[in-house]
Amino acid sequence: MTAAETRTSTTATHASAPTPAVHVAGLDRVFTSKQGSVTALSGVDLDVAPGEFVSLIGPSGCGKSTLLRLIGDLDQATSGTLEVFGKRARQARLDQDYGIAFQQAGLLPWRTVAKNIELPLALHKVGKADREARVRELVELIGLGDFAGSYPDQLSGGMQQRVAIARALAERPRLLLMDEPFGALDEMTRERMQNELVRISAETGAAVVFVTHSIPEAVFLSDRVVVMSPRPGRIVDVVDVRLPGTGRDDALREDQAFFDAVAAVREALHGAPPPAARGVENR
Amino acid sequence: MTAAETRTSTTATHASAPTPAVHVAGLDRVFTSKQGSVTALSGVDLDVAPGEFVSLIGPSGCGKSTLLRLIGDLDQATSGTLEVFGKRARQARLDQDYGIAFQQAGLLPWRTVAKNIELPLALHKVGKADREARVRELVELIGLGDFAGSYPDQLSGGMQQRVAIARALAERPRLLLMDEPFGALDEMTRERMQNELVRISAETGAAVVFVTHSIPEAVFLSDRVVVMSPRPGRIVDVVDVRLPGTGRDDALREDQAFFDAVAAVREALHGAPPPAARGVENR
Amino acid sequence: MTRVRSWGLGLLGLVVLGVVWEVYKAVGPDAGVKLGDRLVLPRTSDRAMPHLWDIASRLTEPALGRSGAPLWEVVGQACLFTLKIAAIGWVVGVVVGLLLALLMQRFRLAEAAVLPWVVLSQTVPLIAIAPLVRRWGSQLRIGSWAWDSQDSVAVIAAYLAFFPVAVGMLRGLKAPDATHLDLMRTYGVGWRTTLLRLRLPASVPFLLPALRLAAAAAVIGTVVAEVSIGLRGGIGRLVIEYAQAAGGDPAKPWAPILGAIVVGLVAAGFVALLGLSLKTYRRGEVGA
Amino acid sequence: MTATAEAPAPVDGVPAGTPTVPSRVLAPGRSALTVAAPIALGVVLVGLWQLLVTALDIDPYVVPAPSAILAELGDNLGSVTSGALHTGANALLGLVIGTVVAVVAAVLASVVKVLDSLAAPVVAALSVMPIVALAPVLYTLYGASVETARVLVAALAVLIPVYVNTLRGLRQTRAVHRDLMRAYAATPAQQQWAVTLPTAAPYLFTGLRIASSLAVISALVAEYFGGPIGGLGKSITSAASSSNYPLAWAYVLGAIVLGLVFYCVALLVERVATRHQPGATT
Amino acid sequence: APGASASGSGEASLTPVKLQLQWVAQAQFAGYYAALDQGYYKEQGLDVSIVEGGPDIVPQDVLSAGDVDYAISWVPKVLGSIEKGAKITNVAQIFERSGTTQISFKSKGITSPADLKGKNVGSWGYGNEWELFAGMQKAGVAVGDIKLVQQAFDMNGFLAGDIDAAQAMTYNEYAQVLESENPDTGQLYTPADLNVISWNDVGTNMLQDAIWANSEKLSSDTAYQDQTTKFIKASIKGWVYARDNAQAAADVVTNAGSQLGKSHQLWQTNEVNKLIWPSTSGGIGMISDVAWSRTVGIAKGTKNETGATIISADPPETAKNMTYVEKALTELKSEGVDVEGKGFTPVTVTLEKGGA
Ligand SMILES: Nc1ncnc2c1ncn2[C@@H]1O[C@H](COP(=O)(O)OP(=O)(O)OP(=O)(O)O)[C@@H](O)[C@H]1O
Ligand SMILES: Nc1ncnc2c1ncn2[C@@H]1O[C@H](COP(=O)(O)OP(=O)(O)OP(=O)(O)O)[C@@H](O)[C@H]1O
Ligand SMILES: Cc1ncc(C[n+]2csc(CCO)c2C)c(N)n1
Ligand SMILES: [Mg+2]
Ligand SMILES: [Mg+2]
């Protein structure tokens, strides 16, 4: 109980850094259709510092994807402020300030692994030599050096997802947007990918906004976990889960602090305090 | 450690009941294709007692689905013994001794909810009045009384899955075969469905063979968890997870015994003992 | 609302086409536009491109021939005649196509052996078979019923119509998910019940476009066969006969062309209606 | 004209956790079967045909014997080949023109939605109209002593299946790919090249396969309505009109082979194009 | 089909007979339609149905196949079929002259076959091309010297100038041109605008429309022999009617379902009459030996574009048999019918635009 309390800060007051990677204030998104209107997001405030890892968690339909898409300028807010590195989202998109990965790997099936990773570079007219060097670097990073010439249909789901992540990293974005990128993976691959993402994000120093359904995943990866509630989608809680001095390695998964953080998020998510102090993901 | 040890029985010695619901001995399944041959299952022994709830867990490709399909006579073993209620699998299938549910709900899109549930009854020439009574009973059971006339595309994924389960139950089978039936559901729906399945299986007294990727799910639902390993697919461990006197309700999810069982399965699955006594599902 | 809009745009499209026709006719050289020594844009003489209003007014003038009826009426009669034969051909083609699809679905060997020949059958030029069918048919006589040229034309129509049905229906019959097939197997039901309860309903989204293509094919086959064997009464025969007047009466040959389009659209419309009655079985379809 | 059944559009995005098992695993020896079975059936049927004709002494104008057809084919191989080249050239040119126009039109219609609606009635009319009925007016429009009208008949026959299929393909762009291109701030042209067109390619090639043998038949039937001599169509009719049925059928055989060559080449191209796109089309 | 059959309900005694035409209903076949309309066939105890042809219908093969009892076809086309095994016999040579011409606009300066060299020359094919080839051969023009274009059902290719010299039947395509407007003058074309090469003048004319019968049945079936005489007799009466009542005969054909315009139909009737009358061979239906041997000679000696000839040897004796027509003519003469038409004078026909 106390653990949960101390770690839960009800407002997102992390705007101390000069320009936040993401600055969201009073953001609303209402979808109107023939059937009526759905308030997907209502009054969302959030700041993500450069290099910070923030997860969005919440039940299905609470607006996680919508928020991510707004940040990526793949969708327009109904009202509110949204800045990415101090610019308008559209400008940030045109400046290629972020990389993005979706739940489905979304590789182009007619391009090889290398060509898929190369895609954003090719589109932005990066020179051939630079492109090739970067691709070589990235396929090694994701451990698919031997598969550079393979086509997506020759890869397993997990391998495809790794390629998608490499593609998102290709232009060394300062911000990574990831929408349940590991949703389709089996448990073991997922765990490996998590470790890899931790390594990559640490190496590149990019800020990450990460959408997930899994509490342990959010806790394992993040500095802060943003807990959302549906209809209308709003932020109900932001849980600080990074204890100073804890590395995000496999040992963490078995650590008491980890279980406590999971419990805290679980509590924030389900609204009521759990019967026991240790919350646990139930799948 | 000790907890794990006491609960782990390395052989499946539950054949004390008169005729087991499922009796598998020395089962092999080898797929041969142009590319070569894959040993999907090798030397699998398993008995499931009537009314018992057994989960199969293991990494992707370890042969869980294959084993289930063999039991359901949807596929033929390469060698070994397989009996369902003391009969050959084919006979059991023709006698409609089991009901089956797949990962995808697999409803017929052109039939309403009621008509989908009614399908097996209609195919087996159950009288109209009986059919209607049974369908009414089942839609209530799954809490979709108001949706009997709806078409599958008008239901959410979770609702569809419930219909599929009702369909599997329609003929009151003594054995339920379920292949990751909740795989596509979000966490909360999934939890609800688990509770419902527990209730249903208790009410009907059917034996259940349940395939899942999720350790907590397996532990929550089952009497025993069968842990498998891939290439060749074999049973590496069978973990007794039902403590006498524990009910499978929401409280269990937060119980110490539950965490211990999860840890035991996790250990069996990953091969090495975890650094701490409490294993935890990491997604 | 959107329906009104799309109809409006469709009509506008026709108007645009008409305007393009007339404008090109007005500005284009009589001898057409050449690129090198190949004509790329057509001639614009009145003989090659009659004014649209001339085509329209020609329709209201007498067709010549016995009745003295206006051209549109004569062409309309021919449309009905052609439509009737095409309908017979369509039905026969659909039945044959369905049977072939069932055979191929049921027996893998049949599929392997027959399918290539089904494809091959469509590479045989109709003009080669039309007179043959007439000749073979004329040997047939069952009781008081004797084969006549109309039957030959219907057979030709069926020859074209069966193809899309056989191919489309085969795909449709194979369309059910593996899960659904497994399900039927767990119910211990045989091929027939699986066919009735699963394969046939699941094939509807494939069957309907196939039926529409078959309808178009049946009309095409009917017209070509009518031309080939000179069967009197239909659009095809008018194509030949009105061509003879093309020099002195340039608008006239366009009349049977319009007639052919009308017949095709009516046939396609009929299949669309059929599709409405099978709506329940198309729920699985993603917005087309 | 004829186009093979359209499938309902593939579902956008494969559901997560699709089974690890390929839905249909090729049994060993199946590919041998696909070659041997049709040949066996063909041999049986042609044998039966030959037997019936010889046994019943059937006149050639009822049905010529396969042996007679082959004999004529042997004697007139040069003429059949040159006829096939003549007709094949028209068909090929028509196929190319029709495909290019259809693809350009489909791209325009997919980008500018209004064009699609505007074209709808014309497409509907063309797709049900016997193109051959247009042949006489096309000869008048483009001249009776050149091949143009025949090429156009073939092109028109090709137009509809390729247009309809390509347009459907252009609409299959997956949402995730669209988002991706937007995230890359790709220009519309880049989006077309990188995603939209490659996604549509298998559909285009399916249309092309349907159109391939259609182009041959159409070019051939167009000869019927006039134009320079030398093609297979004219040869078939003139052989038949002088009661030389075995020769007529030798030309028909040439037409069949030509149609099959077009079909098989298109099929091959389609296979290659669809190689890495699971569950694309037909 | 209207006018196709004359069978009445109470006349079971009539023998059903089918006649296969070479083309669709038009005045080219006026005599047969007139005979049907005037009840001449019925008088002979025949219930005749007329079967129309079409582009791909080969009348002589329909006859060989036994689908019909008689067929109308051109002699050179049939000679080829006979050599290919068709067992049929010319029992009445209705047309004495050839109606085939090669027409061109005056401006092209094509007045003789020799002028065809280097030109786009139209022909329908389908066995209609042999007189042209013979004429060219006679004038020393090789097939390779011209560009041969298959002519369509219409004359637009000619009118547009794509075809320099087009094949035209005097009774049909020639009239089609004269029914068309000259865009330069806004008036219909006139004969003065055209040069006409008639194969009758060149001397390479071949025998055209004849009545053909089944050789085997003729040789064995006495009822068929008898019926043949009756059929020829009634047909000739029909042709005599068409000669003496051109307008009425034209109307009969129009009523039988022909889509041709009135003036065109009358023109065709008149021109066809000119091909028959006056008969110089001893009566309509008789073949002059000169014409026959010329036809056979050309059939053996003329090569088409593929180098083939129609026939390689003389036709069998059974290719023609004048017994029946002679008998019919004798009977008709005794009935006072003018079967030679020595005094035949064609009518004057004014063609209207579009043949209306
Ligand atoms: N394009 C749209 N049109 C209409 N409603 C939409 C649209 N996109 C999202 N919504 C609605 O907005 C809400 C939030 O959707 P969103 O996809 O952001 O949820 P989510 O949190 O990502 O859910 P999940 O975990 O299932 O992915 C939902 O109610 C959804 O129905
Ligand atoms: N029909 C088949 N033909 C060939 N190989 C097959 C076939 N079915 C299954 N296999 C192989 O057998 C192995 C076991 O497959 P199975 O589907 O049973 O795994 P699973 O444990 O259910 O995996 P998942 O958790 O991914 O569903 C896999 O390696 C698979 O590729
Ligand atoms: C394909 C074909 N095209 C044109 C004609 C034209 N033709 C040649 S002779 C003749 C008059 C007597 O029938 C006519 C109209 C034909 N027969 N076959
Ligand atoms: Mg989402
Ligand atoms: Mg499985």
From TrEMBL, chains A, B:
SUPFAM superfamilies: P-loop containing nucleoside triphosphate hydrolases. InterPro entries: AAA+_ATPase, ABC_transporter-like_ATP-bd, ABC_transporter-like_CS, ABC_transporter_ATP-bind, P-loop_NTPase. Residues 22-255 form the ABC transporter domain. This is NitT/TauT family transport system ATP-binding protein. Keywords: ATP-binding, Nucleotide-binding, Transport. PANTHER family: ABC TRANSPORTER ATP-BINDING PROTEIN, TAURINE IMPORT ATP-BINDING PROTEIN-RELATED. The keyword Transmembrane does not apply. The keyword Nucleotide-binding applies. GO terms for molecular function: ATP binding; ATP hydrolysis activity.
TrEMBL record, chain C:
Belongs to the binding-protein-dependent transport system permease family. Pfam families: BPD_transp_1 (PF00528). This is NitT/TauT family transport system permease protein. The lineage of its organism: Bacteria, Bacillati, Actinomycetota, Actinomycetes, Propionibacteriales. It is found in: Cell membrane. Keywords: Cell membrane, Membrane, Transmembrane, Transmembrane helix, Transport. GO terms for biological process: transmembrane transport. Residues 79-275 form the ABC transmembrane type-1 domain. GO terms for cellular component: plasma membrane. The keyword Metal-binding does not apply. Its main location: membrane. The chain crosses the membrane at residues 81-102, 114-133, 153-173, 206-225, 254-276. The keyword Transcription regulation does not apply. It is a multi-pass membrane protein. It comes from Microlunatus flavus.
From TrEMBL, chain D:
GO terms for biological process: transmembrane transport. It comes from the Bacteria. Pfam families: BPD_transp_1. It is found in: Cell membrane. It is a multi-pass membrane protein. Keywords: Cell membrane, Membrane, Transmembrane, Transmembrane helix, Transport. PROSITE patterns: ABC_TM1. Residues 84-269 form the ABC transmembrane type-1 domain. One of its GO terms (cellular component) is plasma membrane. PANTHER family: ABC TRANSPORTER PERMEASE PROTEIN, ALKANE SULFONATE ABC TRANSPORTER-RELATED, MEMBRANE SUBUNIT. This is NitT/TauT family transport system permease protein.
